[in-house]
Amino acid sequence: METYQIYSLTSAVLFVIGIGGVFASRQFIKKIIATIIMGGGVFLVFVSFAQRDALSFADPVPLALVITGIVVAVASAAFALALARRIYQLTGEESFTTEK
Amino acid sequence: MTDLPLSPYPALLVGLPILMAALSLFFKNRGEAVVGLTGSLLTAGLAVIAFVDVTQQGTVIHILGGWEPPLGILLRMDPLAAVFIGMTAVVGVFISLYAWRYFRTQETATGGFPLFWPLWLFLWAGLNGLFLSNDLFNLFVTLEVIGISAVALAVLSGKAAALTAGLRYLLAAITGSMSYLFGVALIYGSTGTLDLTHLGHVLQPGTTTTFALVVITLGLLIKMAGFPFHFWLPPAHSSAPAPVSALLSALVVKGAFYILLRLWMEVFGVSLTYAAGQLIGLAGAIAVIWGSWQAFMQTSLKLIVAHSSVAQLGYLLMVFPLLILAPGESADSADWLSNAWTAGIYQVIAHAFAKASFFLSAGIIIMALGHDRIESLRDLVGNMRITALAIGLAGVSLIGLPPSGGFMAKWMLLKGIFLSGQWWWAPVVLAGSLLTAGYVFMLLRLAFAPAREKEPFRPVPKKLEVYALLLALGSFLIVLPADSLVQFLESSEIFGSGIETIVEGGAHGND
């Protein structure tokens, strides 16, 4: 099995774990972590596609995209955590109470 | 692509609101609002100039920093983008004016939400950027700008209910954009390009492309609250302050629809099948029925309006099955394509005007009564004539009665449905209108009913009522230039096109 195939498979598994976690769990923190795992999976796909043949250097475009993506993902996660913390301070709730 | 006329407007349409948003952060309370309102008026003015420019020159482009694609970023403003930008500007200006007055009345309790202005301008920049983008990754970035500023706006009040709804909205938005980005990665991996125009030529049908299509479509459906991912919309839209609800329902959800439309028509033509169109149409049809029914069952005004958004967005999805031709049909013989496109565009614009007006009216009622339980709407006509008229007009446009913009949309949709022979969508359109009529007339019945006890209607600034009424009137006035609007849109390459499919999954191009 080639290196990029291992990366691609891992990324697909991470993505599925993440998306499952988002829909299956009710707790704020678990959901937020699940989106971060999803993001990890997606960024790994980009990285695995950056590989070209063994001699030349990696394709820089996906790497640049990943950096942008990571910045966005960190910002969203921080925002979500801030919201979760504020909800906890106001109501003491740690999870969504109604359906979904 | 790069031989089209160059224009500075696309860059300015993104840059100016960002600049004004950043500038407004240097001021406090009142100053921030002044800069913010100035910024939104300037942006709207610029959008009008850019719109006129496109009507004269046709599609214009802007190459950022002189770096030509594939290295650099190209912004493209074609007639379709111009119409969406123009709609955002007109609806945005009315909501800005309303917000200016609305937040001033709430100054003592909250400081007048000065943060509304920079967030709204960032949101506006994101929307303009989205309509102008011509590559997949740029679209992702603008989606994120829109998502984060929209959630921040939704939680502006800081109340626990709004925060919970906002967190749910944010999580849905992140999931949607990650799903979208996954598809983008797959497309880049298999073609080595992100440029939409280029992708339309080089994308090959295959498992990877189909999988990318599925995750991108799912991601965008989450973002535009398509069934069955509509769960985040009603709480988020109904718990925000009135001008924000109007922005979210009228403009923000249309962004994801715009991308979906562009990608399906310009990029993914090769892997779309007739069944894919039927499937997304079915999701739309369920949304129309379910959303309207839920709206009918609600007891608070803002929740009615928010659920009605789910239904009205469903109509947009029902346009897709008409655009994908059955095996054996060709775009030349399919004379309903232009009807379907007109229906889609008019549904977008009419809903933007009517829904913005509806939410702004709901804000006025909350201001007058302190809550929005619908039984308190009794004798609304006697107390607030203008708002009652605005709700009535907006409701008529949502139902789709002539001569409103909503009628234009639903009539064209029905025409497209019958001409294309896909008659099974027709009952859905009619049932949706009937259910919409149900909740609109329920509101109007209460508005005309005599009050049981004297409810104290607090006085509300007349200006607010007038802005809401003007938006409602707008959803009627847009019918007047219909001919020239459709003619203008037809100069857009994508407008009026369909996707030809063959029996075995694959397809020929998408011209």
Question: How does this structure look, described?
Answer:
Chain A has 100 residues and is mainly α. Chain A has three helices and no strands. Chain A has helices at 3-24, 28-49, 60-91. In chain A, helix 1 packs antiparallel against helix 2 and helix 2 (28-49) runs antiparallel to helix 3. The radius of gyration of chain A is 17 Å and the shape is elongated. Chain B has helices at residues 9-24, 29-57, 79-105, 107-110, 116-132, 136-154, 160-191, 196-202, 207-223, 233-239, 242-267, 274-297, 301-317, 320-323, 337-369, 380-383, 385-399, 405-420, 426-448, 462-477, 482-490; strands spanning 60-63, 74-77, 324-325, 499-500. Chain B is globular and about 70 Å long. The A-B interface holds A 15, 18-19, 22, 28, 31-32, 35, 38-39, 41-42, 45-46, 48-49, 61-62, 65, 68-69, 72-73, 75-77, 79-80, 83-84, 86-87, 90-91, 93, 96, 99-100 and B 137, 140-141, 144, 147-148, 151-152, 155, 158, 160, 163-164, 166-168, 170-171, 173-175, 177-179, 181-182, 185-186, 188-189, 231.
